[in-house]
Amino acid sequence: MGFWKNLFSGNDSSVSDQRSKFRSVSNSIHNSVPNCDGEILFSSDRDLDLYELEELCDSVGWSRRPIRKVRIAIEHSFVVVTMWHKKGSFKRLIGFARATSDHAFNATVWDVVVHPEFQGRGLGKELMREVIYLLRKEDISNISLFADGHVVTFYQQLGFSPDPEGIKGMFWYPPS
Amino acid sequence: MGFWKNLFSGNDSSVSDQRSKFRSVSNSIHNSVPNCDGEILFSSDRDLDLYELEELCDSVGWSRRPIRKVRIAIEHSFVVVTMWHKKGSFKRLIGFARATSDHAFNATVWDVVVHPEFQGRGLGKELMREVIYLLRKEDISNISLFADGHVVTFYQQLGFSPDPEGIKGMFWYPPS
Known about the structure:
2 copies of one chain form a homodimer. Chain A has helices at 15-32, 50-59, 67-75, 123-137, 152-157, and strands at 39-43, 79-87, 90-101, 106-114, 142-147, 160-162, 168-172. The first copy, chain A, is of the alpha+beta class.
């Protein structure tokens, strides 16, 4: 089973072109990452080891979620991007992001995570650029997310605006 | 084709129970709406006339969107709720809302609209309560939306909080 197997699933007509474009993005990232022995690769293959994903989420202190529900969430995400550190024949999951969508107008990005050992090298931005690239390629015009206060600046640097035109992100809480 | 045909599609084991529960919600709304000759009904059947939906969106001044893309968006929404004014054998679409989701954790509500002739009677709240009810029934714990400034109070009355714990809603704009 190839690593890039499902990279552009559902768009068979130009898989090879897009695959090579995607690879070249990865190469440029690899070149720009200091102190990184090996390669940084991206994939949109969602056939990943969910225990490895859990380990990644543990590394940034996220609460554990049932693997069964994580599997459903990934299946029903419109875009999934994983980031890998590859060294020789060994590869390790070091980043993840996904987006839900109506496949037409809106997409919302969830679960953006980069392993602490690989933070501070611009990899989170490259991960998000891959998400944006894939969503724009599918003609999604409205990309949104909900950002914790301490990462608002990070997303602003990528072109996201907080509360544009007074629009407020809101969450529902069950009546207590 | 019955009006309530797809009301609880995908959950065949207890359709009749849930259908009657849903109907009784509609009845209670009908009773509480002043100056409304006829009945107010809700449905989660997404097999609706998209030109009638366009007319509804026109009535509140929304920009027109390609019908082809609206169809895709509705197909790929997790929950769709329509609100109807029924009088004799005539029924008219007077409200709409939908939510995208990963079917596990998160849902985001989009395109909430009530026809101006039926605003100010509590029907928008009932429409949103139907959306929340359906999402909670599917065990979605995280319900979010992006609210224009002038409807933030409306959503607060339904239990939505703006920027909870400093979380910011953000939108991406293409570089100009």
